[in-house]
Design a protein that fits this description.
The complex is a heterodimer.
Chain A lengths: L4 E3 L2 E4 L5 E6 L6 E8 L3 E9 L2 E4 L8 E7 L2 E6 L8 E8 L6 E2 L3 E5 L1
Parallel strand pairs in A: 2-11
Antiparallel strand pairs in A: 1-3, 3-8, 4-5, 4-9, 5-6, 7-8, 9-10, 9-11
Chain B lengths: L2 E3 L4 E5 L4 E3 L2 E3 L4 E8 L5 E7 L5 E3 L5 E5 L4 E6 L8 E9 L6 E2 L3 E6 L1
Parallel strand pairs in B: 2-12
Antiparallel strand pairs in B: 1-4, 3-9, 5-6, 5-10, 7-8, 8-9, 10-11, 10-12
Classes of the chains: A mainly beta, B mainly beta.
Chain lengths: ~110, ~110
């Protein structure tokens, strides 16, 4: 199994631009999570899906952030417009009901 | 709501020293417990987990953790650390009926060669 696959690994963009982060969960996992990690705030859960349906998006910082999961093998996290304070590492993780989480390698986002 | 506390934010020790990282949680119901490790520049990886049974859990790379229900604790230990154990360690809980991990703030461990 290739694990959770995220792309891109690194993204540098200018303030105001749209950013799209991608995640492919492990096949058969029915939960998908988006986390953001910063030095100041640590690991924050942004949103999670169960069977492609968003269950809890209370961690999404504001309307500039949106996430979709159009099918069981793909999810996106979009920031529009991006701001410097969005700079962070964004992790995607997937799990099945009985297992622990498996994390992707993360996307390091820098907004200048 | 449940929460997880890791008391030490930074730990510095020398190779071959013993390591113990504290983790306490607040939730009255049944929980599953995890320790994750994040090496510099990498993603989180599962070290060990406790679901039920023997409260002393052995994980990868010589780590172990003990669940003490009466103290709501799940401390991580390693008898003799190596330089390669330099990383950030996260404790996390999962409510038995849920699927959302709650993480502690993490402990950065620096092992001096």
């Amino acid at each position: 199994d290739a694990g959770v696959i995220q792309s891109p690994r690194h993204e540098v963009t200018e303030m105001g631009q749209e950013v799209t982060l991608r995640c492919k969960p492990i096949s058969g996992h029915d939960y998908l999570f988006w986390y953001r990690q910063t030095m100041m705030r640590g690991l924050e859960l942004l949103i999670y899906f169960n069977n492609n349906v968003p269950i809890d998006d209370s961690g999404m910082p504001e309307d500039r952030f949106s996430a979709k999961m159009p099918n069981a093998s793909f999810s996106t996290l979009k920031i529009q417009p991006s701001e410097p304070r969005d700079s962070a590492v964004y992790f995607c993780a997937s799990s099945s009901r009985v297992g622990g989480y498996t994390f992707g390698s993360g996307t390091r986002l820098t907004v200048v | 709501a449940q929460s997880v506390s890791q008391h030490n934010h930074h730990v510095i020790l020398s190779e071959a020293a013993s390591l113990e990282l504290g983790c306490n949680y607040s939730y009255g119901g049944t929980v599953n417990l995890f320790w994750y490790v994040q090496y510099p520049g990498q993603h989180l990886q599962l070290l060990l987990k406790y679901f039920s049974g023997d409260p002393l859990v052995k994980g990868i790379k010589g780590f172990e953790a003990e669940f003490i229900k009466s103290k709501f604790s799940f401390n991580l230990r390693k008898p003799s650390v190596q330089w390669s154990d330099t990383a950030e360690y996260f404790c996390a809980i999962l409510k038995a009926a849920g699927n959302k991990l709650t993480f502690g703030g993490g402990t950065r461990v620096l092992v001096k060669p």
